[in-house]
Design goal:
The protein is mainly alpha-helical. It is 36% helix and 7% strand. Helix 4 packs parallel to helix 5. The longest helix has 12 residues.
């Protein structure tokens, strides 16, 4: 192979497999684990999306300045200490990249969200899987 080569560890990462979306005898499955809802988007969300459609040809503020300011006002927080992202996956990936890397360990429990281990491996961290008690993370086992 010529050209850039990925780190060998990247090639061994199993891709994320989403939860089951079909069940025998059920015509419509709603995956709460994927943040799906049975009622559709709220009317205010539909209106906000329609209003924003006129500016789809522009990049949004990557710093989410207005959103961070609104969150800060609403909850009495310093907006400079708020991080926004395109969903939890992006934020988990950022955390893994910032705090992980070669020579670090990321601890996950057996039934943890699969992306924790995947992003840790992308960052070059060693992943340690810990048992659970009654399908619940147990701090004593983690320690």
């Amino acid at each position: 192979m010529t050209g850039p080569r990925p780190r060998p560890a990247i090639l061994g990462i199993e891709p994320y497999v989403a939860g089951e979306s079909k069940l025998p005898g059920v015509n419509r499955v709603i995956k709460l684990s994927s943040n799906e809802g049975p009622f559709g988007p709220p009317p205010a969300a539909i209106a906000a999306a329609a209003a924003a459609a006129a500016d789809l040809n522009r990049y949004p503020d990557g710093a989410a300045t207005a959103l961070r300011a609104a969150i800060g006002r609403r909850f009495g927080l310093d907006r400079d200490r708020i991080v926004c992202g395109a969903g939890s996956d992006e934020l988990i990936g950022l955390l893994a990249s910032i705090f992980g890397g070669p020579g670090t360990e990321t601890i996950v429990t057996r039934h943890a969200f699969a992306m924790y281990a995947i992003y840790a491996k992308y960052a070059g961290s060693s992943v340690v899987t810990v048992a659970e008690r009654n399908l619940t993370a147990d701090v004593d086992l983690i320690l």
